[in-house]
Amino acid sequence: MKIIVQARKSHKLEKRPLIIMKEQGMEGLDRKAMLGPKIRRFRTDLGMSQTEMAGEIGISPSYLNLIEHNQRPVTVPLLFKLGQAFDLDLKQFAEDDEAKTVAELAEVFSDPLFRDQPVRPVELQEFAARSPNAAQAMLRLYQAYRQVWENARAGSIDAGRDPLPDPGHPLSPVEAVRDMHQREANHFPELEEAAEALWQEAVLDRNDLFRGLAEHLSQRHGIAVKVMPVHVMTDTLRRYDPHGRRILLSEALLAPGRCFQLASQIAALTHRDMIEAIIDRLEPTDAETRNLLSVALCNYFAGAVLMPYEAFRTSAQELRHDLELLRRRFGASFEQVSHRLTTLQRPGARGIPFFFIRVDAAGNVSKRLNGGGFQFARYGGTCPRWVVHEAFRTPGQVHTQVARMPDETTFFTIARTLDSAGGWHEQLQPHFAVGLGCEIKDAKHLVYADGLDLPKATGATPVGVSCRLCERLDCSQRAHPPLNRTIRADQHMKKASAFTFEN
Hints:
With 503 residues, the protein is of the alpha+beta class. Helices cover 42% and strands 11% of the residues. Among the domains are: 17-96, 434 Repressor (Amino-terminal Domain), CATH 1.10.260.40; 100-155; 172-306, Orthogonal Bundle (Arc Repressor Mutant, subunit A). It has helices spanning 17-23, 36-46, 50-57, 61-68, 76-85, 90-94, 98-109, 121-130, 132-158, 173-183, 189-202, 209-221, 230-233, 255-270, 272-282, 287-306, 309-318, 323-330, 334-341, and strands at residues 224-228, 238-241, 246-250, 345-346, 349-350, 355-360, 365-369, 399-404, 410-417, 432-439, 461-462, 487-488, 500-501. A six-stranded mixed β-sheet has the order 7-6-10-9-8-11. Helix 7 (98-109) packs across helix 9 (132-158), helix 11 (189-202) crosses helix 16 and helix 12 (209-221) packs parallel to helix 14.
C-alpha cells in the first residue's frame, strides 16, 4: 500500500484515542494488530532510521525493530502516537489489505504451470508483506498472460483449428487417455480379436455368460470366483486376490456388471503383453496415464466380450439401434450398449459414427468420446440446452433432440439416466445420464428418430459446444461470455441473455 506523507510532523493531537477512533470510524481497532511491514515501509518512505522514528514516537529503537519484524504488536496507543507524530490516515493505515493479496497470489500459484515450483503459504505472506508492489505486479502479469492465451485460443477456434493447449493446465491423465482413444477412433482390433478368441476357447453361451466366464477362470487358470456380501466388500466392486487365487465380486453388482468385471479381470490376467504393446504404441508420458490407460483397455476388452463385434453390429442394424432391446439381447447395461456402439469402426464393417458422453447432475463430464464430427469442449462443461441435462428430470425415460450447432451442422441425440447399480442404500448410488448422438443424416437408422422430418430438421434446438466457445450472443442460458468477445455493460438496457457484447 502506498502511503502519501503530507507533512513530516503534525501538531500534537489533543483528543483521546477512543474519541478519535469513533470520529474516524475505527471503533473496531480496539485490538492489537501486526502491522510491522507497513511500519517499516512507512519509515523507509520517510527516509528515517529506526532510531529517528523511535525517538519521534517515544519508544526504543530495539522495540521498533521487534515491531517491524512482527515480533511485537502495534497497540492502539502506539498507533495514535504515529498519528500524532506523522500526518497519516489511521483507518487506512490500520486496514489489513494483505489478506486479499495473499489469497490472490495463492490462486495464481495453484496454477499447474507452477507445479514444479510449489510456493508455501508463508512465502506468499512474506511476499505480500515485504513487497506489496511487486506482488501486485505479479498478479497483473499473470492476468495479462491468461488474457493473451485466451485471446490466442479464441483466434484458433475462429480459424477452424483445434483449440490451443493450455500451457498452464497440461492434460490430466484422464484427458490424455481420452485423447488416445480418440486418435484410435475408440477401436482396438487386437482386443476385438482376443475377445472373439475367448468366446471360442471358453465355448461361451450368451444366455449364461457369467457361469461360462467363471468356469473358464477356474478350469484354465485355477482362479475361483466368489460373490461377497456388501458389508464385506463395502465400496469395492471387484478385488483380485493373487495369493488366494480368487476374484471377489460385490453382491451390489447386477448381472451385466458381474460379467463385465470378470471379463475385465481376464484381460488383466491373460492379455497383459497385448495391452502393454498397445500402451507402448500410444506413448503415454507418465506412469499415472499409463496405469489409467491399462484399466481403460481392460474395460474395452470386457465390452467386446459382452457384445461380440459382428453379432452386436448386426443386431444393432436389425433392431435399428433400439438400446433397450440391445441391452436385453446381450445382457448388458444401457451405458455398456451406448459405449459399445462408439467402438464399431472395423474397416469394411463399420457402424454409425456415434459420439458419447456421461455427465452427473451438476454437469460434470466423466466420460466422453467425439464422433460423427461432434466436438466436445476440453475444458468446462457442456451446453445447458443439450438434451442430456433434461434426462435427470424424468429418470429412466429416453429423451431425443435435434440439435443445431453454431456452424449449422445438425446432430440427433438420445439421452437417458443410468439405472441404479443395485444392492446398497440409495444415498450411496451415483447418478449419471448418458448422451449418444450422430449426424442428422444417420438418424434415419435409429428407431428414436421415427416421425421426425429429418431432411429439414425443423424445430432443431440451437446448441453450442460450451458457453466460452459459443458465438450465440442472444442465448438466455449463457453462463459465461465467449472468449473472443468484449462485454458491454448498459445501465439502461436489459436483455434476456446475462451478457451483451460489443459488435
